[in-house]
Amino acid sequence: MSNAKDIFLKEATTSTADGPQRIFINKALGGYYTNRDIQKARYRDWERARDVASLAKWTAVNDLANTLEAFVAKFESNGGKVHWARDAEEARQIILQLIAKAKAKAVVKSKCMTTEEIHLNDALEKAGYSVVESDLGEFIQQLRGEAPYHFVFPCMHVKREEISALFTKHLGTAATNSPEELTMIARRHLRQLYVDADVGITGANFLVAETGQISITENEGNARLTAALPRIHIALSGIEKVVKKLDDLSVLLPMLATAGAGQPMTCYNTLYSGPRKPGECDGPEEFHLVLLDNARTQILADPEQRDSLHCIRCGACLNVCPIFKNIGGLAYGTTYQGPIGSVITPHLRGLKQWNHLSAASSLCGACTDACPVRIDLHHHLLQNRRNANQTSPTWFDRLFHRGFNFVISRPRLFAFGGRVFRFTLPLLKKIPLPYLSAWLKTRDLPPAPAQSFRQQWKESSHG
Amino acid sequence: MRISLFIPCFVDQLAPQVGLATVRVLKKLGHDTEFRSEQTCCGQPSFNSGQWEVAREGAIRTLKVFRGAEVVVGPSGSCVAMIKKFYPELLKDTPHAAEAKELAQRTFEFSEFLVNKLGVTDIGAKLSKKVTYHDGCHALRELRLKEEPRQLLRAVRGLELIETDESESCCGFGGLFSVKFPMISTAMVQVKGGALARTGADYVVSSDPSCLLQIGGWLTREGKPIRPMHIAEVLAEGLPQ
Amino acid sequence: MANARDEILARVREALKVTAPKPHFKSEPVSGRSTGTVKAWLPDGGETLSEQLNLLTENLAKLKANLVRVSDVSAAHQALQQIALTKKWKKVAYHSHPLVSPAAEALNCEKWEVTSSFDKQKLEGCDAGITSCEALVAQLGSILVSSESSGGRSLSVLPPVHVVIATVDQVVADLEVCFAEVLAKHGQKLPSMLSFITGPSRTGDIERILVLGAHGPKELYVILIG
After folding, report:
1. CB within 8 Å: B174 and A364
2. Is the CB of residue C29 less than 8 Å away from at least one CB of chain A?
């Protein structure tokens, strides 16, 4: 099997060559830009709101042990049960055991990237359970047998005609070109599955230490139903999702919606503090929370990149990233796409195998400007490049940069080399050379000037 | 004021006209310029490739070159950002940390220097053309220069500035990124160059010659009529040679 | 081997031995609160009740929610009756609440009060769910419902139409005030679910085109008394 970098290069070559698809993605994001700007303008000071959001996450993450302990004590006193998982395998085992103990057959899920991270669906299906994704986009991706394209907009790359054909194939429904009708087909299909499911699995956007609540953000109402109808509610969350105060959400909830989807507030922001209480009409009998480490403590141990644990998974960095927009989400081959994915995937899956994502960036910084919690994303890409070079340098890079440095540390050699380069450029263009040929495949170089700046300076009156 | 020129290595070798225009504008404003010929490359290619040890040598060498210079001005947002933002990062916890911070403070990008340091927006240039502006990412997001170049362009007689929705989009150059991931880099310049061409402008102007190399290279290959021009060249139009 | 909890917490403590620099800010937030006073920077929630009502009205309209302002309880009953007639409801679900019960019981269709022994299949067959709420947030147009004050978890989300009956004194300026009131009201005994509903259920998953009524209600009515 080829390695992750080769697959990435191949996928990126294919997807960048697909002009109509790139236009489709750009068009799909067009409405987002307009709405985001309208909503941002309603903030009296967006930049300061970012400071506050960033500080709320900084405060919790930099006191993570105490914050988590406070959260867990409160959560359990509310009647929920916490399970700790060191890694993906442990998390899968915990969830499988909970489901087995409940003698459940059918599982309904609402969108949760952390379950993607631990490949939960595969494990559940292998164990013989029927699992259905209830978020429309995730449902479509599940039917397609494809990973989410974007961790907030999972099927933004799929055209309505394809969705219609997919539904005809799997659900036997008539063809339609109307997004509304397609949505209603999914709604009707999934309705009965909620009612029949024994277990509902959700993620969590925030864990509130002060009150022991978990907060779930969604637009469709599927998470609300997932946490209301089945007998058992299992939530899976990374340990970094905890915040100190309920009031922290007064800035984080609106900013998540505005930065990520251009909304004032996502349609449903729900806080769960336990299973159904005596006297309440409905709700699950059991409420379990699986707290996952899975290399998050490794990121925590790197003070330079610790702020990447502030991420609230809004997706803003993907939406503005020219790399994401041109190669598409699937080319990354990761759970988390875009800039944040390129920053954290090396921590989750190994820097040597995944540093190419950090290299595949022009470092334009649009992501860092878009991040509502001020993660220094593009500079972290630079740090990943540095770290990769320290731990697993390639001989070509070493040689190239040492050689380049040899020349530039000698001004006369540099001037001479430049002269040779300029005079031989017409010839060099004709022979296959690393880097230069890659440039010339799609771009010209201007004709080389006869004299460099330094020559002209010297020859003019200045010299 | 005696201004020490910081001429990026590829401007020196491939786009000397940008350096000459920079000199002409600064002279017109009555300033002395000097060019310290020991300067070569600031080390950014190595820095961006993760070769920080190599880049550190380039940084230390550049610190020495500009030792004692009153102000350092460079016609490139990217290379100036290297000195202003990344040298202090690269050299922190080394004996050169203080000097790096100090050089950062007296180094300016060309349009930044004119507008924010000298307080000048009108040089007296004339250019009866339609131009559109490309915000180089380093100038825009590392140095936070957005209005400065536009103020300068608006003051040019006869010049019509046309904005595009994609003015802040990256051109896809990114140094070695452009040749390590040429398909992504090309896709990016297709978006950028396409938007620039659609404006119907005669020139795409930027404060970053490296972006102009990428954009111009693609525009020429695609046979688009819009031409790249550095902001220093625009401001030198109509000034005495 | 230590258990997972102890091991993870030990890893966390070890990792945090090296401190990370505090982010740079334009201004230091007010001490004593982790978020400082954010009112001044977030979207405006209005100072006076009339400003708040204006903002609420404007925000609900943008969210495609229907706001019906009425002067008193009997007018609220009429408003609900009117919606029921227009929408040709056959069966509605509601919960026991002084604002909700009399209004629902006055309807001329089949009425069903959800209780702790209710059947989820039956709720699925209802045309509308009628509930009260905890608060209305002017700043965002959000309605806070809870498992305690809104008939459990499903009533406000399963039926295709959700009607909220509320009074103007339930309007709060912003989320900050809302959270403070929730903590003051419920203290340590929080309802098992608190949910901010901001407009009818929606999705943009197909070509980023907005469709209402993805899984939750397609329509949201707020009958506001006073």
Report:
1. yes
2. yes
Strand-strand pairing, A268-272 and C193-197: antiparallel
DSSP-derived 3-state class of residue A431: coil
Does residue B16 have a pLDDT over 60?
yes
Chains touching A (at least 3 CB pairs under 8 A) are B, C
CB contact under 8 A, A301 and C155: no
Structural domains of chain A ordered from first start: 43-294 (3.40.50.10420), 405-459 (no CATH)
Q: Is C28 exposed, middle or buried (0-12, 13-18, 19+ CB in 10 A)?
A: exposed
Distance CA A24, CA A44 (A): 33
φ and ψ at C92, to 5 degrees?
-125, 155
Residue A255: closest CA among A316, A307, A204, A210: A316
For range A243-268, the mean pLDDT: 97
Percent of chain C with pLDDT over 70: 92
Distance from CA of A251 to the nearest CA of C (A): 7
pLDDT digits (tens, 9 = 90+) for C74-98: 999 999 999 999 999 999 999 999 9
Q: Where are the domains of chain B?
A: 2-117, 130-236
Q: In whole angstroms, what is the distance from residue C93 CA to residue A432 CA?
A: 75
Q: B145 vs chain A: nearest CA distance in angstroms?
A: 14
With an 8 Å Cβ cutoff, are B217 and A444 in contact? yes
Average pLDDT over chain C reads: 92
Class of the domain covering B2-117:
alpha beta
A404: CB partners within 8 A, 6+ apart: B41, B45, B46, B54
Indicate if the pLDDT at residue A120 is higher than 60.
yes
Task: Pinpoint the alpha helices (H) of A283-429.
Answer: 296-300, 316-319, 322-327, 338-349, 351-354, 356-359, 366-370, 377-391, 395-408, 411-428
| Higher pLDDT among residues B91 and C23, named by residue | B91
What residue type is B9 in one-letter code?
A: C
| Contact present, B59 and A398 (Cβ < 8 Å) | no
What is the bridge-based pairing of β-strands C161-167 and C128-131? parallel
Rounded CA separation A361/A355 (Å): 11
Domain count, chain C: 1
For domain B130-236, the CATH class is alpha beta
- Is B130-236 the same fold as B2-117? yes
Interface of C with A in 155-214 (CB under 8 A): 155, 157-158, 174-176, 178-180, 182-183, 190-209, 211, 213-214
Query: Which chain B residue has the Cα nearest residue A33?
Result: B165
Residue A110 CB-half CA count within 13 A:
28
Position C188 confidence tier, pLDDT thresholds 50, 70, 90: confident
The torsion angles phi and psi of C35, rounded to 5 degrees, stand at -105, -5
Share of chain B above pLDDT 70, in %: 100
User: What span, in angstroms and rounded, lies between the C-alpha atoms of A237 and B78?
Assistant: 40
Give C91 to chain A, closest Cα distance, Å.
18
Q: The complex's ipTM?
A: 0.96
**Mean pLDDT value of segment A280-300:** 97
- H/E stretch holding A55: helix A46-61
Q: Can you tell me the distance from the alpha carbon of A315 to that of A261, in angstroms, rounded to the nearest whole number?
A: 8
State chain A's mean pLDDT as an integer: 96
Chains A and C touch (3+ CB pairs under 8 A): yes
**Tell me, what CATH number does C103's domain have?**
3.40.50.10420
Given a contact cutoff of 8 angstroms between Cβ atoms, the answer to whether A52 and A45 are in contact is: no
